[in-house]
Amino acid sequence: MTSYNQAIVEFAQAGLAALEERASKGNVIKTAAAESHFLCSWMASALKARQFSKLIAKDLTQWIRDGRSLGAGAQLPSLLARIDNQYRAAMSNQQLGQSLEHFLTELKANDWVVILDEEVTTKLKLDSDGENSLVISNKQYEGYIKDKNVIKPITLFVRANEQKLAQMAAKHELLLSQGDKKASLIKHHKAYQVFPNNEQPALALLLD
Question: Looking at the whole model, is its pTM more than 0.70?
Answer without folding.
Answer: yes
